UniProtKB/TrEMBL annotation, chain A:
InterPro entries recorded: FtsW/RodA
Domain of life: Bacteria
Protein name: Cell division protein
Organism: Arthrobacter livingstonensis
Keyword Cell cycle appears in the UniProt entry: yes
Entry's localization field: Membrane
Segments traversing the membrane: 16-33, 45-61, 73-92, 104-122, 131-152, 217-249, 256-275, 344-365, 377-398, 410-429
PANTHER family referenced in this protein's UniProt entry, alphabetically: CELL CYCLE PROTEIN, PEPTIDOGLYCAN GLYCOSYLTRANSFERASE RODA
TrEMBL record, chain B:
MF terms (GO), sorted A to Z: penicillin binding; peptidoglycan L,D-transpeptidase activity; transferase activity
GO biological process assignments: cell wall organization
Name of the protein in its database record: Peptidoglycan glycosyltransferase
Organism: Arthrobacter livingstonensis
Gene Ontology CC: plasma membrane
Keyword Coiled coil tagged: no
């Protein structure tokens, strides 16, 4: 038995306590912004504080009814991040005269509502397994949407990943993250025996039969297509990582991961040679601090301004409202990490990264604890994709790797990302509930955990 | 399966450890070098909305930060901007930082190392850093008088300085502009004003023409030839120089004409006294040909030509002799010796050269800043006269002074005379291409026996009569004003 021994306690009161801290943090951050930028505490401030508390408590109460045993740390962590993001976006709005903050509030409301809907409507995460192939079709559909004339928002900051519906713009790729993970989880949990055992063997390497791999290839082509047709390096890396980690967890074969990494290296080198936008990305990354590269159009100006901001913040930061994060382009979305680094300092940014790490750790924990392989795969896929997304964007902003346009989960201004990530939260909460719930004697036959779950 | 999940978790955590590393690198280990990066103007912009210290002239602010109601809490305001635009420069978020606003930015922002203790205590008390005040050496009355001497439509410059300390008493140039346009918090209006001003002929947006623009010095350069001649030992005060009406060069048709407007054509031999009094060309061209290019260059360097590193405290455009990297042929060297060809000088350079002669050969570093004070009026910095170089010997300086006195008493700069005071001077008229117009120069000092003030006047693109009217008589008025005569 590899199952973790968790004491079957709901822990909802702990969650409530942590939630109060998280809400307090968001409200305090907003208060600091107002104080430091000479704003009065008008009705907006109190309304926003009430809305943040209300939304968080609504999820909390939903959990009490629908997922009593869900992990108590996930929700407070997410509320803290989302609240901080709202405060930073509000802070930037004050200087730039933008209204991104209002839109972010609207999207936060929608995203939380969606999460609550998922928690209410999805009785058990295993139901999603029935939608394996629908998820695949949906993923391909979502990924192709930005290329459809009429609703495509065209080329935005070098990538064609947005669609436009009336006044709203939306990044369907964010949702595709969830549907792809669902597909991989459903497909791999059903077919892992076939993939592992049927097919030719070359040396120690067991090759799967091509018809078993068919759907996987479709999914893989879709994610590579994102790179080729939509110029979106970040999303492409994200999908590839998701794909790799799920196939690894399903098969436990490190050789597949190695082959995948080799493929990625070859593919990456080919992309560097073939696609001019990739070549430029890499070159501006390596030579980021050259004055000509900083000044060039499409050069490293954005990243370097972000680095200057973070250096300006130093260890302790300038304090919210005291720095000038607005001198970085896209300060409230792609570069929000630089804004936080400047005003909250190394200490504040470490705290943010720790919150992310905590969230991801709880996701993995749910994967370990849940009893069905679909749930395990889905939780690992979602948690690892989330980790990879954090790595790609934060690594890009801090010039660890070339900057690619992924959103910073829960912090960055942008509706599709918030919506997708809150749905991920709902799914992980649901899976963690299943993981921590005391084993019930009556299990419906069709949902019976597969045998291999216990053998590991 | 669970083992694979654990392994994936380790990979995820490894990625996060890399992130902790890169964040630490950017915000701690590499932070100093990023902050010092020349492309990084964040430190400067940090103070854009804060209370920067004032720039004072005669106790009154010519640049100050005024509290506003907007989020950008302070607005930089320039008083009498036309009179002081060339000195203060401006501090703009959108058009850059220039002049004293740039050169004294750390003091004005209160972020110098000397202010470190204040900064630490501010960190605890929560007070914002306050800028230090910068008091200039400028005399507002002289500055105004000099400014009014330049007629509108002439892009002239005037410098008044103290030869013994290097303190600048007045420095003006026209046309000027309203620096408040650049300091606006409204980017559109700054962009519009910038686009308009940057194309306006004659305007130097980035500092007074008196130290940023160079002109052919013409005859005032003959002082360099004279010093070089005396220093060589081949000439003395009684030397007789050839003074042909047109200087011939072996093997070519070109001749260098003598100066037309004095008494030069009355004799074909000249003493230094006669040659300087009448500003004859050919005697000095012959000195240069005799001593050679290197000797003249060496003397020019000793007077401060070709110095690229001078700051007063803003960076001074370097004046050039010979101005081309080639070895000059005879005619080119002859023309260079009379301040033509590729020789160029800022009005400040000519004033500094004159100040070196006035100060017994010691050239003092020019300076605009008298004192820097903290907000609680503690003086943290005050003008310390600093010698730049020994330009020539005291004896040669005295000899040249005597001749410059006779230029005023008996010669071409008679209009610069001040009753009861000995004035020493040299004028110049440098031809500007073939336009028939000249750069009219005056440079001189008074009293000759105890030099207190140097006056240098430069009026470009004027005819000979206008040039004469705008130089020596105005110098006389300025000497009277500064010496209270």
């Amino acid at each position: 038995m590899s199952q973790l021994l968790t004491v079957a306690k709901p822990r909802r009161n702990i969650e409530l306590l942590l939630l109060v801290l998280a809400i307090g943090m968001g409200v305090m951050a907003n208060a600091l912004v107002n104080l430091n930028l000479g704003r009065t505490f008008d009705n907006d401030f109190y309304t926003q504080a009430a809305v943040l508390a209300g939304l968080s408590l609504a999820v909390h109460i939903t959990l009490r009814f629908r997922a009593k045993y869900a992990d108590p740390v996930i929700l407070p962590v997410v509320v803290a991040l989302n609240g901080l993001g709202l405060a930073v976006i509000h802070r930037l709005d004050i200087v730039t005269g933008d209204t991104a903050g209002q839109r972010q509030w609207l999207w936060t409301g929608l995203a939380v509502a969606a999460a609550i809907a998922v928690l209410w409507l999805l009785k058990d995460h295993r139901i999603l397994r029935r939608f394996t192939y629908i998820s695949l079709v949906l993923s391909v559909f979502l990924l192709l949407l930005p290329l459809v004339p009429g609703i495509s928002a065209g080329d935005v900051n070098g990538a064609t990943v947005w669609i436009k519906l009336g006044p709203f713009t939306f990044q369907p790729g964010e949702i595709a993250k969830i549907t792809l993970a669902t597909f991989f989880a459903g497909y791999l949990s059903s077919n892992r025996d076939l993939i592992l055992l049927a097919g030719k063997k070359i040396g120690r390497l067991q090759l799967p039969r091509s018809r078993d791999l068919g759907p996987m290839v479709v999914a893989w082509i879709a994610s590579v297509g994102v790179l080729v047709f939509q110029h979106d390096l970040g999303t492409s890396i994200l999908f590839f990582g998701l794909f790799m980690v799920m196939i690894y967890v399903a098969t436990s074969r490190i050789s597949w991961v190695l082959i995948g990494l080799v493929l990625m290296a070859v593919g990456g080198f080919a992309a560097y040679k073939i696609f001019p936008h990739v070549t430029r990305r890499i070159d501006t990354w390596i030579h980021a601090l050259d004055p000509q590269v900083i000044g060039a159009t499409g050069g490293s100006g954005q990243v370097v301004e972000g680095l200057f901001g973070m250096a300006n913040g130093g260890l302790m930061g300038t304090g919210l409202g005291e720095g000038s994060p607005d001198s970085v382009p896209l300060a409230n979305s792609d570069m929000i990490i630089a804004s936080i680094g400047e005003e909250l300092g190394l200490v504040g940014l470490f705290a943010v990264v720790c919150l992310y790490a905590l969230f991801i750790a709880r996701g993995f924990r749910a994967a370990l604890g849940t009893r069905d392989s679909f749930g395990k795969l889905l939780a690992v896929g979602l948690a690892f994709a989330f980790a990879l997304q954090c790595f790609v964007i934060i690594g890009g902003v801090t010039r660890l790797i070339p900057l690619t346009g992924l959103t910073t989960p829960f912090l960055a201004a942008g509706g599709s990302s918030l919506l997708a990530n809150w749905i991920i939260v709902a799914l992980l909460l649901k899976i963690s509930d299943a993981a921590r719930r005391p084993t019930e004697p009556a299990v419906k036959p069709d949902d019976k955990p597969r045998k291999e779950v216990h053998a590991s | 399966m669970n083992q694979a999940i654990r392994n994936s978790w380790i990979v995820a955590i490894a990625l996060f450890i890399l992130l902790f590393g890169s964040i630490s690198y950017v915000q701690f280990f590499d932070a100093d070098s990023l902050n010092a990066n020349p492309s990084n103007n964040r430190q400067l912009l940090k103070t854009f909305c804060s209370d920067r210290g004032p720039i004072l002239v005669g106790g009154h602010p010519i640049a100050e930060s005024v509290a506003t109601d907007s989020d950008c809490k302070y607005q930089r305001k320039y008083n009498d901007p036309l009179l002081y635009a060339g000195l203060t420069g401006f501090f703009s978020k959108y058009a850059g930082q220039y002049g004293l606003e740039s050169a004294m930015r750390d003091e004005l922002a209160g972020t110098t190392n000397e202010a470190l203790f204040d900064r630490i205590s501010q960190a605890f008390t929560g007070a914002r850093p306050q800028g230090q005040s910068v008091e200039l050496t400028i005399d507002p009355a002289i500055q105004k008088a000099a400014f009014d001497m330049i007629p509108d439509g002439i892009a002239g410059s005037i410098v008044v300085m103290k030869p013994k300390t290097g303190a600048i008493v007045a420095m003006v140039s026209k046309p000027s502009y309203d620096t408040n346009l650049m300091a606006s918090h409204d980017q559109n209006s700054v962009d519009a004003a910038y686009a308009k001003l940057v194309n306006e002929p004659g305007i130097n947006l980035f500092g007074s023409a008196a130290y940023t623009k160079t002109y052919a010095p013409g005859s005032v350069f003959k002082l360099v030839d004279t010093a070089a001649a005396l220093a060589s030992g081949k000439y003395n005060k009684d030397s007789v120089l050839p003074n042909p009406a047109a200087m011939k060069f072996p093997g070519i048709a070109y001749t260098l004409p003598n100066y037309l407007y004095g008494q030069c054509d009355t004799q074909d031999k000249a003493t230094f006294t006669f040659a300087l009094e009448n500003s004859c060309n050919t005697p000095f061209a012959s000195i240069a040909l005799d001593l050679g290019q290197d000797a003249i260059t060496a003397q020019a360097d000793k007077f401060g030509f070709n110095d690229k590193s001078l700051r007063f405290p803003d960076s001074v455009t370097s004046s050039k002799f010979p101005g081309s990297s080639d070895t000059l042929d005879g005619p080119a060297l002859a023309r260079s010796a009379i301040g033509q060809q590729d020789v160029t000088a800022t009005p400040l350079q000519i004033a500094m050269m004159t100040a070196a002669i006035a100060n017994g050969g010691k050239q003092m570093k020019p300076n605009l800043v008298q004192t820097v004070r903290t907000p609680d009026l503690k003086t943290v910095e005050s003008l310390k006269p600093e010698m730049l170089r020994q330009s020539t010997t005291p004896e040669i300086a005295q000899q040249i002074t005597d001749w410059m006195v006779s230029v005023v008493d008996n010669g071409i700069a008679a209009a610069a005379a001040v009753p009861g005071v000995q004035v020493a001077a040299k004028t110049g008229t440098a031809e500007v291409g073939n336009t028939g117009l000249n750069n009219a120069w005056f440079t001189g000092f008074a009293p000759a026996n105890d030099p207190q003030y140097v006056v240098t006047i430069m009026m470009p693109n004027v005819d000979v009569a206008t040039g004469a009217a705008l130089t020596s008589p105005n110098a006389s008025k300025l000497f009277k004003a500064v010496l209270k005569k």
